[in-house]
Amino acid sequence: MPSTPPPEGLLLEQYRGRLPGDETVTSPAAIARAKTRIQVRRFAGPAHYTEHLSHLRIAHLTDLHVGRVTPWAVQLAAVELTNAEKPDLVLLTGDFVCHSQQYLDRLEALVQRFEAPVMAVLGNHDYWSGADEVRQALRRGGVEVLDNRHTIIGLRHQMLQVVGLDDAYTGHARRDEALKGLRRDLPTIAMSHIAEEADGLWAYDVPLVLSGHTHAGQVTLARLHELAIGKLAGHRYVHGLYGSRRSGGAHPGAVYVGAGIGASVMPIRLGERGQREVAIFELGYEPGAIEEHHDEQDPLPGRPPTPEMMAKRAAAVVAKREKRERKKS
Question: How far apart are the C-alpha atoms of 249 and 296, rounded to whole Å?
Fold first, then answer.
């Protein structure tokens, strides 16, 4: 907590998240303008849920990247848009910070504003910046962080099982740990920062996996996102729905890749698919029961990372941690 009260007109959570010399006050008008730049996209849940649930509304946000690159008004607008949907549960799929721990107070204040229960998994930027510190900030903000584990939550007198995989990009995902003791008789939804982990989750009767990481490529004109994120970076899933939500489909489950709220380098967002987004999933509704942003897509060919690449990513996490420790000493 600050030792002195915040200046008049400045919210406590804004005050705590400011850097020295940052005198910006986020106005309601700025938040209102930011709302117009965030898409709320709606989807029915896989048909599997109709056998277990009457109705649950899940809000999915990803890649908040709280920090200097993404305006604070955008972050507040995303939370307000989410709360306006009155979800039963909010799921956040990683990359809460950019490249430092400088804005952890602001992250804590942001996630406290959600009015529904919140669960989350970490992403690669969280590991690069300090996974333990990011977890602590999220937990102080009331978020349940699922590190390679699952939990059961009661929502509107219904039980939902939520699986959380730790970040696969930096080599921290442990599917066997996350699924140990999973109940097959309960409806289940999963989170993974990296969407390709869905391929291994579907075999365990997980019909829907929510993910992020790609920012939808941020530039989706002329399908540049599929070229950059798909062909060049090797992702099978770039943005939106993939797989099948219907019984007897060609795929045993579905995965949704969110376009994200924040940015880690350049905040440019071009093309309809690349806009910042909050995704709403109506579990218990048949696909086609509501108007949706788009239908399922076929995955791209993809290219899994080599062992050498995974070793390089793991080494980067260690190097960044050692650099932080040297600065402290």
Answer: 11
Cα distance between the two ends of the chain: 25
Q: CB-based contacts of 17: which residues, under 8 Å, 6+ apart? A: 66, 72, 103, 105, 106, 107, 109, 110
Closest-CA residue to 156 (of 11, 78, 53, 6): 53
Helix (H) or strand (E) holding 93: strand 89-93
State phi, psi for 171 to the nearest 5 degrees. Answer: 85, 25
| 79, 101, 175, 218, 235 from 277: Cα distances, Å | 11, 24, 28, 11, 20
Residue by residue, what is the 3-state secondary structure of 106-148? HHHHHHCCCCCCEEEECCHHHHHHCHHHHHHHHHHCCCEECCC
* Amino acid, single-letter form, for residue 73: A
For the chain (length 329 residues), average pLDDT per consecutive 10? 34 38 66 96 96 96 96 97 98 95 96 98 97 98 98 97 98 97 96 97 94 92 84 91 83 93 89 94 95 93 94 95 89
